UniProtKB/TrEMBL annotation:
PROSITE patterns: PROKAR_LIPOPROTEIN. Keywords: Signal. This is Fimbrillin-like. The lineage of its organism: Bacteria, Pseudomonadati, Bacteroidota, Sphingobacteriia, Sphingobacteriales. Residues 55-71 have a biased composition (Low complexity). It comes from the Bacteria. It comes from Sphingobacterium anhuiense. Residues 1-23 form the signal peptide. Residues 54-77 are annotated as: Disordered. The keyword Signal applies.
Length: 594
């Protein structure tokens, strides 16, 4: 048994770093957990895992001064990068997604803790016996997460404990000379130590371990939540990254950095799903003790995703290349996010989604764009919304605080919005009440065509839109509004309605704007909502495609219900030009608040 000198001062430093917490539960005197008698003079310790700290309140062990040029966890960068076929929300932050379904806990110091150590993970506990003012190494024990194996210790003795894991099934090596242990390369090294002496009495004294990371964990996240389909495959190359290991002093947690650096290979096969069975969000990790800034370059091409209709969309002509700087901090998380999203079709300065919005109940990203933009002979009730309503087939609340823009709930949050009347006006040539627009007097004789429009397979199309990509096909590479119809009569006896399009389906296209003609809060009943109306008018002297900005009749709080009674129409989204500013505000989260 080797005597460890000056350990009292080292453990004083370790107490500053540690998050390990102790909890004591009583048991029968001189009995172990199974009720069997212990040898005279002995007691036992049960070791349990509370989880892993998120690291954001953790001071790095042996790290550089706080005056270094590292980003703090409150700093972030985020931007929308335009591409050919798909765009990408590119962000650098510390919001590493959890791969555990277990809720987060809180450590004693308030730091967030995730109980996300998988069963079967190995770790080692080191015990140091207190002798006077110093501590002497006593023993070490191997443990496996998910198993509680008591260890026997002497009563009346005080100990300090240290725990170490590589967050996998790899066996942790025993201590080296002078408590120095060379750590493995590119591993998720976890460390914890007691904050106070553990004095062994008659009762079983569980040790609840909250681990900290010793290295920096850098995650590269690739998701297709904004493209509404899981990834089948892609070609992904990552360069500019490197890892270094270190030697840890078990008594303090301090690290001595190794000199040699290595570059682990990261390809598409390196990315794991963040949620079981869902390949829409993947992440690849690497770990380093080095705090030198890194310029990480990620190139994505040949992206292949599976759509809701069972077909695959393959981007053979699209490549995304991004280089972002990350300054690793020991013990902390860093994320480089590439959130891929459908690109828009642009006409007259307005960026339109390629198809209508629909709601897929039960999905993690329920707000999405239709995988095709073809006219459907069978109406899809998931695609018909009320004015200012964010759930299909459901009337909106009359309380503005309860209203949500359904387009803003498409991932990433706030990138899309319901168009204003002015944006709808960019693709219309007339305006008026709905009853005046369909079959007006002038249309009976000589219809006046909206410039740039044509009719194709029960849809109104526009020439001149940019943003085509072969992966989408003709229907989504053309600005096309299908004659899906609308429901003009809605019962307000309940806020839930059924779909009945009458004779409108196949005859006109209709989708909402976000604009009101009159402030709805000032009305009991009245004219309020503006929308797009597109149709083919046939007159005595010819026919023409017409696009109009129409106004519908709204009854507010009819029959005492706190809902807005409106027609049911499709929703077609446009890009929100204010997203670039809103996304940089504190607290912005690309995950929509559903």
């Amino acid at each position: 048994m080797k005597k460890t000198n000056n350990l009292a001062s080292k453990f004083a430093l370790a107490a500053f770093f540690a998050l390990g917490a102790l909890a004591v539960t009583s048991c029968n005197k001189d009995n172990n957990e199974s009720g069997q008698e212990l040898p005279a003079g002995n007691s036992q310790i049960i070791v349990r895992i509370a989880g892993i700290s998120d690291g954001e309140n953790n001071t790095s062990k042996g790290s550089k001064s706080s005056t270094s040029n590292h980003k703090t966890s409150s700093e972030k960068s985020i931007e929308l990068v335009s591409g050919n076929g798909f765009d990408a929300v590119v962000a650098v932050d510390n919001q590493v997604p959890s791969t555990s379904k277990t809720p987060s806990l809180r450590a004693a110091n308030g730091t967030s803790v995730s109980s996300n150590m998988a069963a079967g993970t190995n770790y080692r506990l080191f015990l140091y016996k207190k002798e006077g003012a110093t501590y002497t190494y006593d023993n070490s024990y191997e443990f496996t997460v998910g198993q509680e194996t008591p260890i026997q210790v002497k009563k009346g003795v005080s100990y300090k404990w240290v725990a170490l894991s590589y967050n996998n099934k790899e066996v942790v090596a025993d201590r080296g000379a002078d408590d120095q242990l060379l750590l493995p390369e590119n591993k998720d090294v976890l460390f914890a130590s007691s904050t106070a002496d553990l004095t062994i009495g008659d009762n079983t004294s569980p040790i609840n371990i909250t681990f900290n990371r010793l290295f920096s964990r850098i995650g590269i996240e690739l998701n297709t939540k904004g493209m509404f389909g899981p990834m089948n495959s892609a070609t992904v190359t990552v360069t500019g990254h490197s890892t270094k290991t270190a030697t840890v002093d078990l008594t303090t947690g301090a690290l001595v950095l190794a000199q040699a650096a290595h570059t682990p290979e990261i390809s598409f096969a390196s990315f794991i799903n963040t949620s079981e069975g869902d390949a829409s969000q993947k992440i690849a990790y690497y770990y380093t003790a080095d705090e030198t800034p890194q310029a990480i370059k990620v190139v994505v091409k040949d992206l292949n995703i599976k759509l809701d209709n069972g077909t695959n969309r393959v981007f053979t002509t699209s490549t995304l290349s991004q280089t972002q700087a990350i300054s690793p901090e020991r013990g902390k998380n860093h994320r480089l996010l590439l959130g891929l999203t459908e690109s828009a079709l642009t006409r007259d300065g307005v960026q339109w989604s390629r198809s209508n919005l629909y709601y897929k109940a039960g999905d993690a990203t329920p707000y999405r764009f239709n995988p095709t933009n073809d006219f459907n002979t069978i109406a899809d009730p998931r695609a018909y919304f009320s004015f200012k309503g964010h759930l299909p087939m459901t009337l909106a609340s009359n309380d503005p605080k309860k209203q949500k823009d359904p387009c803003a709930l498409v991932y990433p949050a706030g990138l899309w919005k319901t168009p204003t009347a002015a944006q709808v006006g960019a693709v219309t040539s007339r305006a008026g009440l709905l009853g005046d627009l369909l079959g007006g007097v002038l249309d009976l004789v000589l219809p006046s065509k909206t410039p740039g429009t044509s009719e194709n397979n029960k849809a109104l199309e526009y020439a001149g839109a940019t943003g085509a990509n072969p992966a989408y096909g003709d229907a989504q590479n053309t600005l096309r509004f299908n004659y899906n119809g609308s429901q003009t009569k809605v019962s307000v006896l309940s806020d839930l309605v059924s779909l009945n399009l009458g004779n409108t389906q196949g005859k006109h296209a209709a989708f909402w704007s976000s604009s009101e003609l009159i402030d709805l809060s000032l009305l009991g009943t009245g004219v309020g909502a503006q929308s797009f109306i597109g149709y083919k008018a046939s007159g005595l002297l010819g026919s023409a495609t017409i696009a109009s900005t129409g106004a519908g009749l709204l009854n507010i709080n009819l029959l005492g219900l706190d809902v807005i009674s409106s027609e049911l129409m499709n929703v077609r989204c446009v890009r929100d030009e204010s997203w670039n500013i809103a996304s940089l505000l504190p607290g912005y989260n690309p995950e929509p608040a559903l």
